[in-house]
Amino acid sequence: MSLTKTQKCIGVIAAVAVLGSAVAKADIGNTINNAKTGTTVTVSGTYSVAEEVHVPSAVTIKGPATFNFTTGSGTTAGLYCSSGSGQKIQSITVTGANHGIYVTCGSVQVTSCSAHNNWNTGIQVSDSGGANCTVSGCTSYDNVDKESGGGNADGICVKSGAGSGNKVSNCTAYSNSDDGFDYEKDTATVVSTGLVSYNEGSYDGYQGNGNGIKMGIGGDNLAHSYTSCTAYNNTAGNSPHGFSTNGNTGKIHLTSCHSYGNGKADVLGNCVLSNCTMQTN
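Given the sequence above, the corresponding structure tokens read:
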């Protein structure tokens, strides 16, 4: 028996609803975990989520929506891209998780997302599998790791062995207990454009380093690039620099970057500066 046009239309709408806002809020974790490669899970409103959610390969999660995790520091992440490649997370706010959005696989796009009041870094790309990823148009703030005194929760990180081809653009971090942006112990350069970081280094009585933009660590020799990035009013932490190489000996390129009102002068090492106004005292 052939279907009428109306019946076909109803079938399409039902299929979208299964992956969309019609899904019961309590089932959103299972819906995403079991989504098929290449599909889009469309979400809206606010979800209370009691489990770590693994985003399958090439699955898109599209908001706007808020995921309030109740997992705390007990799991690795809230939204976790850990296997496969090509996941897209769009217009999602994540709170209450360990790492809010955590990426350890390739070609992942995190776009227009917000991460706040998580127990560790808001948005992080890590490990050798975390390559060719983009974080764009995102905001990360008020993240604090109370269990270790404040020293781990950054705003947005590409760190801990992250691979090549990663880019961060037009993102803002503020009021995190540690640093705003942290690129320590990468295996390849990161390209950054339009970053803004302020009021880092303390939140809810917990204090970390407080660098606005941390550009590596001792033992790194990577020439990261930063264009049109600004760090200001980072005064609360125990290392409150606007920009800091933090021991990275690479020839980091800074173009049209600005730093002011921070607790300490910028630490620029072998940086190559072009059209920048940096803080010198």
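Residues 1-24 have pLDDT under 50 and may be disordered. Try to locate this feature in the token string yourself.
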